[in-house]
Amino acid sequence: MAGNQNGKTYSASFEVAFHALGEYPEWWDGRKFDKPLLCWTGSVTNETSKKIVQKALLGTEDANPKGPDFGTGAIPKDRIVKVSTRQAGIKGVADEIVVKHRTGRHSTIALQTYEMGREKWQGAQVDVVWFDEEPPGDIYSEGLTRTQSTGGIVLTTFTPLKGYSEMVLRFTQPEEGARRHLTNMTIYDAEHYTEEQREEIIAGWLPYERKTRAMGIPLAGEGMVYPIDEDQIKVDPFEIPAHFAKICGIDFGLDHPFGAVWLAHDEGTDTIYVYDCFKISNETPVYHAQGIKARDPQGYIPVAWPHDGMNRDKVTRKALWKQYREHGVRMLRLSARYGDEVGGSQAIKPACMDILERMKSGRFKVFSNLTPWFDELRTYHMKDGKIVDVNDDIMAATRYAYMMVRKARTHNPVAIQRAKYTRPIVSAA
C-alpha cells in the first residue's frame, strides 16, 4: 500500500519475474518456488495492463520482440520465449508471456483485467497472482481461490484512493490467524526522488489527498479527526520531570487490538505530552498488565479505562477492569468520563475537539519516536460527520487518558509506600 509513483509496480514486477524464472537474489528471504509456474497479473483495464504491468515486465508497451526496448524490464530478453497478444480494441495488449525457467522448462504469466469480469478469473490452478491496483472483492476472492490447491501466493500493489475499502480493511484489520502482511511505502522511501522533487510533487496535489498519494495512507472520507501537521506536535523524547503529573489510558481490545498510552501533564504551562504507547493483539489481561507495570515500576500512575470495562467475563463473572486491578494495575475507580458525576458511555467528539484545540495552540505534544501513535493519527478520520472507530486503539486510549487527566499523579515516594498498605478494594459506579 503505497503512494503514487513510489515504485510499487516496479517492485512487484521483479518479484513476479523472480518466481517465474526461478532466479532469486542472494538477499531474497521471501517465498521461493523450485518449479515452473503459472502466474496471473490483474489490472483495471486492458489499457492499464498494457501501459503499466506489461511495460514493467517487458520494458515496453510494445509486445514486438524486435522493438528497441523489448526485454529491458523485469524479465531479461534472453529468457522471454514468446509473447501472445489478444484482441482488446487496443493494439498490442499482451495476453501471455512465456518465459524460460531455470530448470529449462517454461513458466507462463497471463495478463488479466478486472473489466473481464469474475468469470474470467475462475477455473485455473495458479501459483502466483499479482493484483496491480485494488481489485473488486469478488475478483480478489477468485484470485485467492486459484492459489488454494497450489499453495501459492497473492500480492497486491495499490494506492488506497478508495479509502477504507474492503481491501484496505482486509489487511489493516486482519482476522485472527489470517496469513497476511501489509507493507506501507511512502514517497520518502522512493530514492529516485530528491528532497526538492518530493516537496514539489506533494505541493502539486490537493491538500486532502496528499497523505494518500504521497504516503499511501487511505483517503480519509470527509476528513481527518486531527487535521494538523505532524511536525507541529512532534517533540524529541526527553526525561519526564518529576513534577509532571502522569496518567495512562487503555483500550481493552475486546474484539480488536489492545492499546495503551501514557500522558504527562505540565501544569505550569498546561501542556500535555504523549510520551509512551503500545499496541498488541491476541493477548490476555495478565500480559497487558505486565506491559503496563513495566512502564511504572513504582506503581503510582493511575490508569483510565472505558465503560466497556464493566463487562463481566463469562467464565470468572468478574468485571474486566477488576481483572486488571487484581493483576496489579492501578486502575481508576471510575470509568473514563468528562465529569465525576455522569458515567456510562461517553461521546467521542468532545475530547477529540479539545485535543485538536490543544494541538493547534501548542499545548498537546507527542514524542517523535512513537511510530504506532502517528500511524493511527494518519488514518483517524470521519465519515458522515461521525468518527470512524477502525484501527483507533491507541487513539481511543489517548482519549480516555485525556478525559481523566484531572486524575493524573506526580511521583511521590511517601504516598506510594503508604498506598501499598492502605489501597482499598472498591466497586465502580
Structure description:
- The chain is an alpha/beta fold and 429 residues long.
- It has two domains: 8-172, P-loop containing nucleotide triphosphate hydrolases (Rossmann fold, 3-Layer(aba) Sandwich); 231-422, Nucleotidyltransferase, domain 5 (2-Layer Sandwich), CATH 3.30.420.
- The protein has 13 helices and 15 strands.
- The protein has helices at residues 8-21, 46-58, 137-146, 166-172, 195-204, 210-215, 230-233, 285-294, 320-326, 349-361, 371-379, 393-403, 413-422, and strands at 38-43, 80-86, 93-100, 106-113, 128-132, 153-157, 223-224, 234-235, 245-251, 258-266, 271-280, 303-304, 364-367, 381-383, 386-387.
- The chain has a six-stranded mixed sheet with strand order 2-3-4-1-5-6, with helices on both faces. A six-stranded mixed sheet has the order 8-13-11-10-9-12. Strands 7-14-15 form a three-stranded antiparallel sheet.
- A hairpin with a 6-residue loop joins strand 9 (245-251) and strand 10 (258-266).
- The longest helix is centred in the N-terminal third of the chain and has 14 residues, at 8-21.
- The radius of gyration is 27 Å and the shape is elongated.
- The chain starts with 7 loop residues before the first helix and ends in a 7-residue tail after the last helix.
